[in-house]
Design goal:
alpha/beta; Nucleotidyltransferase, domain 5; five-stranded mixed sheet; 11 helices; 52% helix
């Protein structure tokens, strides 16, 4: 089975914010500030409700039978609808195993809301066994099925108190973790027009998740030591050959930790 490790990056949906708060006559930055302020008043956090997030990047590591790919969906000027459509089209075509970090709690619900907004069809994703009996016992939606593996949820034993951040677990395992950017900086980077930096950052989050996934497959016994090392070497080769500055930085950070060890 193909394995698709994915991550999304979002910004405030200021168009929705204008409608929710009746502020048609102010700029995007001011609308976002109002949205954050209202959320702090209601929940003592700046983290917006999931329907108020707009997707600006979906990045992935795809391990197919014969190759490994690192990519971000759509061109840099692709619309949100195009990005979301590409994500679900990939599931429709390949039915991969999905792997995420907090995908059940954030990435997938946001994708649900945005697909509703744009009318994106995703029959394979929503399959529960009516058309394909295999999906009755292993589908993308059930928390305890493995067609979508939310590593954060599984490693926490499905307990809220056991959850950890991607950054902490990646660092624990000697992987690069965050490299000069974090999720709370995405809106600022977007406002400054630096969508490429957001896409690059999203790819490194997907890479950290992929490395954790490989280690998890090792401890599960799905990979033995030889195959695990072969998968790491395959990834290192792919990063080295990519010729992308952010992937070079990721590889250098990964090597530096291994050299210390």
């Amino acid at each position: 089975m193909n394995t698709l490790v994915f991550d999304i990056e979002t910004i405030p949906d200021v168009a929705l914010g204008r409608r929710l708060h009746g502020v048609d006559d102010v700029d995007d930055d001011s609308v976002a500030k109002i949205m954050f302020f209202k959320q702090r008043q209601a929940r003592q956090t700046d983290f917006l409700p999931l329907p108020q997030h707009r997707i600006v990047a979906i990045s992935a590591v795809l391990r197919s039978r014969d190759d490994l790919h690192i990519f971000t969906l759509g061109d840099i000027d692709a619309t949100e609808k195009e990005i979301v459509q590409r994500f679900y089209d990939g599931l429709e075509r390949y039915s991969p195993e999905l792997v995420s970090w907090n995908g059940s709690g954030f990435d997938l619900p946001v994708l649900h809301y945005r697909s509703l907004l744009h009318g994106v069809k995703a029959e394979r994703y929503w399959e529960l066994g009516d058309s394909d009996r295999e999906f009755r016992y292993n589908n993308y939606l059930s928390r305890f099925h493995w067609r979508h593996l939310d590593l954060m949820d599984v490693l926490a034993g499905f307990q809220f108190g056991g959850r950890s951040s991607l950054e902490q677990v990646a660092t624990l395992l000697g992987f690069p973790g965050k490299l000069g950017m974090s999720g709370d900086q995405v809106w600022g980077r977007y406002q400054s027009g630096d969508l490429k930096a957001i896409r690059d950052y999203c790819e490194t989050d997907a890479l950290n998740t992929y490395l954790i996934y490989l280690r998890f497959q090792l401890v599960r016994g799905i990979l033995d030591d030889v195959r695990y090392q072969a998968e790491l070497e395959r990834l290192e080769t792919k990063l080295r050959e990519a010729g992308s500055p952010h992937l070079d930085e990721f590889l250098a950070a990964w090597r530096s930790v291994r050299d210390v060890e």
